[in-house]
Amino acid sequence: MADPTPVDKQQEKAVPPPAPRTAVLVFHGIGDQRPMETMLGVANAVLGEPEDAGAIGRWIKPYVGKDGFFDLKSVSTKAIGGEGRRYDFFELYWADQMSGTRLVAVLLWLCDLAKRDRSALPRDATWLWYAVVGLMTGAMMATVHLAWVIGLTLTGTSTAALQQRAVEAAEPVAAAFLVLGAVASVVAGFCLAKGVPAALAVFAAFAVLAFVGYWNGIVLLTLVPVLAGLFIFLGTRAAIGGMLVVAGVALGIVLWGPFLSLTVGIRAASGSVVDVQTAFDLIFLTVMFKAAAPWLLGFLALFLALAAIFLVPYVGDCARYLRDAPDNIEARNRIRQLGLEVLTDLHQRRSGGRPRYDRIVVVSHSLGTVIAYDVLRAFFVKQMSSLQLTDMTAAALRPIDTMPDDALRKTTFRLAETDSGLTWEPESGPRAGTALTYQAVVRWAFEVFCREQRTGFANGLTASPWRISDFVTLGSPLTLAALLLTDDGDPKTLGKKVKLREFPVAPPAESPGEKGRVLFREGSADDRHVPDVPERLQHSAMFALTCWTNLYFSQRFVVKGDFIGGPINDKLSPGTVNVPLRTTLLGGYFNHTHYWKREPGRKAETEHIRALALAVLGEPAFRRVIAARASQAGVQQGEKK
């Protein structure tokens, strides 16, 4: 090759290498989100509000990505510190892909959740499960009751005549239920091989219906359709729980005599206590309880209003994304494909023939954490499918690959001030053997990987195929991963999926039959070693190169803090840094959207704002940003004088 000419050398000197840049990609959460709303909140938390003294200078410009989505913009900063690093903030906006959600989709998803194991919920939040199944049971009972009332009114049938027919048919109805119970118990116990206990339970249920039909058959008009619907849509446990909740509420109403005498009017004019028959009619909403109709109409109106205001706009996003029904697959695929395109675009961008970004941070909130998690694991498989590691990269990954299951001590973390600046510290015990030491190993592996690996992109750029250094989750429903990501809600089922490497964790799971967590040689099996075949990364080793930091407001009884967020399971992912937070915003209640909002009295010193900035920037960059802001504030103060 010919030596460079003097002109070539002069041009090389004239074009300095581009300043290092970090891209921050934000995935917003549920609700009626507006473009850039979450991204600007995160940018202001990291860089300071534009009106703050010493805030990092920034510009807002259109984000012209693959498709040129003109409602989206990016935020670019000035060069910071001696390194001259710049930060570009982007948002992956997906709310438009979830428009048109219907109430039925939300209700079907809630029914699916009701069937699953509720043990994944925090103990002080189980009341929410009972409240939801009770509300849905009440809505179903109200609908059936009103349908009967309307039908009887249109046909001109009196309830007295209906009651008389029920009395006359009491014995045949009871006998029919006993026969059906015997047949059903045989089918359940022997044909379906459910065992004797299941057969006895089925027969007992039909025996109760037989008794009810014999004693007061008119109750079956509402009870049977409601029970059938509950068992079909909510499952056995939820059906029983819902009926108990409704019965408890009804009994409370019955026993609250002074209130009833002024409102429902089910006490006799003489003021005598409500009789058993009337209480029974109220609990099971029989057609004999005429006073229920106007109240049930009001209840259904309130339920529909709640659905229109809250369930469809907010829960609807979760229902469509987390429920793998055929109607939802297309929307989910569009969102994930959009995420892959944006990450590919960020990896392919270049400045002066070099990668524009040497580090990419993914920040996500609420349902956006699940979406980002799905996008990242798909992108990792896409980028690593044909990659062969160098010896130095494999050596850097070896400590993670051979890490024992009990290597990391389980604990949460907090902000701590040290002589060198703000850092994370364990809530208990030393740093050694915690997720912090694991992240230190991951950062070293990431640095070596980016230095050693080179992949040719479609635009001619040659660079590391994976430059995502950090995954930051805010208020993540992944704390309820067993409930949301499995069909039965059982944590054991989630553990099996992790072992099969369906869901990446930190550190990567050691799959049965394999020796390592991260590395493998194609063509090798069991203990056989094939030295001539280069080592490769297994498809779920994402968190061997990327650090996962999870911030959440500690919740109590659902209303305190952030119920949607919480710690990532430290049994399955002990390498995740879980950081519980507290805030005075709204008195510490309903804080799900407060991760980037400052407390009025503390502003930039707000604990969760500092935690967010530290998680996004990392310790060295956080200190440089703080120093740059202090320097800028000093300059501004001097100019004022």
Largest sheet: 8 strands, mixed
* C-alpha-based Rg, rounded: 31 Å
Q: How many domains would you count in the coordinates?
A: 2
**Could you say which overall geometry the principal axes of the C-alpha atoms support?**
elongated
**What integer is the average pLDDT?**
84
* Proportion of residues in helical segments: 40-55%
What does this structure look like?
The chain crosses the membrane at residues 127-153, 173-193, 200-233, 239-260, 295-315. Keywords: Membrane, Transmembrane, Transmembrane helix. The protein has 641 residues and is an alpha/beta fold. The protein folds into two domains: 21-93 and 336-524 and 532-639, no CATH class; 120-322, no CATH class. Helix content is 49%, strand content 12%. It contains 20 helices and 16 strands. The protein has helices at 6-14, 37-47, 103-115, 126-155, 159-168, 170-191, 196-216, 220-233, 236-255, 257-262, 276-283, 292-322, 326-348, 367-384, 391-401, 435-452, 481-485, 491-499, 607-617, 619-640, and strands at 21-27, 58-62, 73-77, 86-92, 350-351, 354-355, 359-365, 413-418, 421-426, 455-456, 462-463, 468-474, 519-521, 535-537, 547-553, 577-581. Strands 2-3-4-1-7-12-15-16 form an eight-stranded mixed β-sheet, sandwiched between helices. A hairpin with a 2-residue loop joins strand 5 (350-351) and strand 6 (354-355). Helix 4 packs across helix 8. The protein starts with 5 loop residues before the first helix and ends with a helix. 39% of the residues are buried. Mean pLDDT is 84; it is low at 1-15 and 266-273.
